[in-house]
Design brief:
single chain; alpha/beta; two-stranded antiparallel sheet; 9 helices
């Protein structure tokens, strides 16, 4: 049975890397549903991700294409694994406090607690190290989210430090490990 991955993309320069992640996950046989914040759409277009995933890309919490369903609830019900990559400081803060003001946070809040949830942080080093961001990360982890930590690299702003999105291979390894573990215990 095909596993359904919901890939949520928030506003970060590394949003362009979501195209490669989507492509590779699809080639591995996963069904990928993409959610995007408005800020993410400033970095990469929904059409790119729609073509790569071969699925609709969801960008609006209040858009209801099928009157018999509540879109964000239906998306949550059809998720086997939820990942925010890249996860901006803003999205991490919204998720950690249960705010449901966009398609990503609305779906996240509607997910069953049993669904594996990841976030791959990506932001400037100072933003990542800020005590507020670190507290929000700690809160998310206390709710069952797993962080895929950023790597140290030269960042888009010209700074060098921890904040670059983890390599696509690292993210895929985390996802496949969860599904492999589920197969062992099922």
């Amino acid at each position: 049975m095909t596993k359904n991955i919901t890939l949520a993309i928030s506003g970060s320069i590394s949003a362009y890397k979501a195209a490669d992640l989507t492509s590779q996950l699809t080639k591995l046989g996963y069904s990928v549903t993409v959610l995007m914040t408005k800020a993410a759409q400033d970095f990469i277009t929904p059409l790119t991700l729609q073509v790569l995933s071969k699925n609709d890309v969801h960008v609006d919490l209040m858009r209801e294409d099928d009157v018999s369903k509540v879109n964000h609830i239906d998306l949550a019900k059809n998720t086997d694994l939820f990942i925010v990559a890249p996860a901006s400081a803003n999205t991490i803060a919204h998720l950690s406090y249960g705010l449901a003001d966009n398609i990503i946070t609305g779906v996240a809040l509607a997910l069953p607690t049993s669904i594996p949830k990841f976030f791959a942080s990506a932001m400037n080093t100072k933003m990542y190290e800020n005590p507020i961001t670190q507290e929000n990360i700690k809160r998310l982890k206390s709710f069952g989210y797993q962080e895929i930590e950023p790597k140290s690299s030269l960042l888009a702003c010209g700074d060098f430090g921890k904040g670059a999105l983890a390599d696509t291979s690292t993210i895929i390894d985390k996802i496949t490990a969860v599904f492999n573990e589920q197969n062992i215990f099922s």
